[in-house]
Amino acid sequence: MPFPLEPTLSQVDLPVIDISEFPQDLSQLRDNPLLAKLRKACKEWGFFFLVNHGIPVDLLQKAEDVCRDILSLPTEVKDRAITSNPFNTYSRSPELEAFRYSDPTNPASIEQTCAKIYPEGNPIFCETMTTYVSSVSNLGEKITKIILASLGLDANAFYHSHFDKFASVLRINGFPSDKVSIGEEVLIHHTDLGCVTILYQDDVGGLQIRSVEGEWFNVKPLPHSFVINVGDSLKAWSNGKYRSAEHRVVYNGWRDRISIGFFTFFPDETEIWAPVELVDDENPRRYKPFVFSHFMQEFMADKENNERATAIESFAGV
Known about the structure:
Elements: E1 10-11, E2 16-18, H1 33-44, E3 47-51, H2 57-71, H3 75-78, E4 90-92, E5 97-102, H4 107-117, H5 123-150, H6 155-163, E6 167-175, E7 185-190, E8 196-201, E9 207-210, E10 216-218, E11 226-230, H7 232-237, E12 247-250, E13 257-265, E14 271-272, E15 290-291, H8 292-304
Parallel strand pairs: 1-10, 2-3
Antiparallel strand pairs: 3-11, 4-5, 5-6, 6-13, 7-12, 8-11, 8-13, 9-10, 9-12, 14-15
Helix pairs in contact: 1-5, 2-5, 4-5, 5-6
């Protein structure tokens, strides 16, 4: 079935990055055209498609299938997974429902929630999502290193000194098609607050990205790819060299939509401060140092006040 674009918006052809073209040793890639392409994507959009990522297509499809299964359960069953932890819970509204898993690389995180939903067990769901998370977590390390290399840094050294302790959250999103109207914003416009987001989406579409000029664009799904985007924390750490772009999901009138997001974060007590290698006379320091947990508090306060989360800008200026 063709992808039904919102007629009032143009479609953006996001840059496509083939990760298989990068060698394991990134130390000699500073002037490589592959990095130049990635650098341009991160500066202009903060988003790109990732292909030939090494995660089997059948695993992607199986993950989508088991996520559809759990989202299709009766509401009273899914409600068993509700907790007081906003990063490890089930939540729902007419436009969006989501399962969130904090520390998903620990299999117990998925298994504990699964046990609440399926008292008799569901090894297919647990095994599929545990395998998926392990694969995507490894991919996250590769992507982060390549992004570091594109900034002109020693990728391995900076990864191990700044990023190898990153935390993560897995989020399974369901967008019911029978409860919203065409053109309705079902995931409010926002920026991601972490480092790197690795998003798998089905073929329904609805993702939109805001350009530097403030114009919204439709993003047509690319089969078997991931959508990668830079978060606010990495934007600040890069001294603003890379964008953290606003994005949203708008219902486009086809069928229920599924997405699976893997979000990487700095640990709570990490002080985020652009390294001196990214600061010079032409690029003065743009953000004050801040502790990630403090940034998270600003972010949550914005949400509670029903405002778009712009907490990163409260740390702008030195």
